[in-house]
Input
Amino acid sequence: MSAIRWPPGEGRTGRAVRVSCGVLGPVTAWDDAGTPIDLKGPRHRAVLGRLIAARGRVLPVDVLVDDLWQVPPAGAVSAVRTFVAALRRALEPGRAPREPARLLVTDGPGYALRVDADSVDAWLFEDEVGAADTALPQPALTQLDRALGRWRGPAYAGFDEPWARVERARLEQLRLQAVERRAEALLALGRAAAVVPGLDAHVAEHPWREDAWRLLAVALSRTGRQGDALAVLRRARELLRDQLGVDPGPRLRQLEIDILRQAEEVGAGPPGPAQVWAQTAAAYERAVVPGARARLESTVGLLRSLAVTGAGGLTAAREQRVAAIVAAEQVGDPELTARVIGGYDVPANWTRSDDPAQAARVVAAAERALAALGPGGSDATRARLLATIAVESRGTRSARGPQAAREAEAIARRLADPALLAFALNGTFMQTFHRAGLAAERDAIGAELVALADRHGLVTFAVLGHLVRLQARGALADFAGADGHAAAADRLADRHELPLVGVFTGWYRAMRYAATGAPPAAAEAGYREAADRLTGAGMPGVEGGLLPLALLCLRVWHRLPPDVAADTDWGPYAPWARPLVLLADGRAREAAAALRRVPEPPRDLLYEALWCLTGRAAVGVGDRAVLARARAALLPAAGEVAGAGSGMLTVGPVAGYLEEFAAALADQPAASGHGLP
Output
């Protein structure tokens, strides 16, 4: 129950007054301490109940008279005014004698109850049931439990006037629907056994509700009690035919067929995964109408699973994700759109988007959803949108990405929601590249992800945490630690059928081989083998130009000339490769011009590696300005291995490049070779 109040100092007591009203049982009211307020006699309570039923509308005095008495006595109007005056004193005890009433007000020819929407149990009940209609199963269950818990007995108990019967019947129908929706939520959460006792009593009291019979039969069937489920359906059919003269509806008839078929299959042995999938998909097609909003939300869950199944699944999920967002926006429900956007919490560990244009569309849609939700939107929904913005803004220079990441993480920590926090930490990780030398910070994020995911069974985020730590420990030259995280990620991938994880751990092992002293030719072979696994994996943001870049980094580290074909596809890394390739070809003037056009590296996992390449080219052409910029950018990463933080390639320890660049700036000869510490 909640607040009817006026500001402190406006009542005689100088204290804020809180009053709650209840009609889901006997009509009553409570003060802010939960103490029942003395409402005098039944006529006083009838006036209050009738005004609550009017929901803020003005009821003329003559309407109140007719509603209170079948045959109004002489002086009925005066009696109503007396009841109202007594109610005002009870509800507003601090009101001064001549001060206008604030709650039970006079308006024209009658009276109205002007209270907040959250001050009456019936109103709260209706709002909570309505919110559960569009919520996912667990939030829906929470809302419905709260709503049903408000009932203290029959609505408007003790009153049998026509107005009370109408309201009682309306609220009772809504209560019965809430009981059945609660059962649906429990079934969706896999808690079929918890559904049976309550629904058994429910159908006994309300035997004409077909949906209740259907849900009870489904719950029994899902707990392995096919015989009991069929008996329930037979009982429902007999009641409907014998006492109402109607046949069961199509959903009940189809359910009986499905349970009979299932019983036959159980007798022949347990169904395999393919059979279970086919049966479930068919049941979903029958149960959920094509235009239902539930289909859009279910689609997001399916896309989330699809994205981690392999190359084809990832590509399909990426394509259909935007289609789902567009469809949700066309519905015109901001909450639905927000859930569709924020529900796609697929972990991401690579900082270059597979489709930057699509990522920008997702970010724009998330921003629109945030604006449409306004301050009344749920914090969890808002946090998911913000985390989406943070993840999809990766690699850009927008200030919005880091800001969204901070907000999402703060909300998730306040709500103590493990899955939400894991998603928010993914966004935080993606926005931890604003300067060089942040491997230790990313390692801490990975450690929290692993611990959080292990505690709460968040498998894909556990994999993400291990991959983040693999990258970070590599950057910090702790290859033994990185090996452990690679092995842990592989174990989870094998157990949970996550084939794309092997692409990253395979590349890590090639990088580790190169970084720990392998001869350049052998290291190149390792990179080429890793690249074979990446080809066609559905990750163009990772694949594009990665192998040529890895080979170039290896040769630059070992002071070998680039060995590249004229048609080499450098992908997005062409600006950083071109000056070095031109220098190796003896075209110093063109190399210098190309170097002047090189942009600052994107803020991602290859930030340090690309600055090392830029600085080495600057040494080659004698561009002191670019060289000074490269050295300044790399200084915070002096203790890291450049590029190893990507888990994919390395150009060697940053410290060696800093020495080389400092020597070049001082016109001193550079030291040769950069061995690992």
Q: What stands out?
A: Residues 190-265 form a domain with the Serine Threonine Protein Phosphatase 5, Tetratricopeptide repeat fold (CATH 1.25.40.10). Residues 162-188 form the longest helix (27 residues). Residues 1-16, 670-677 have pLDDT under 50 and may be disordered.
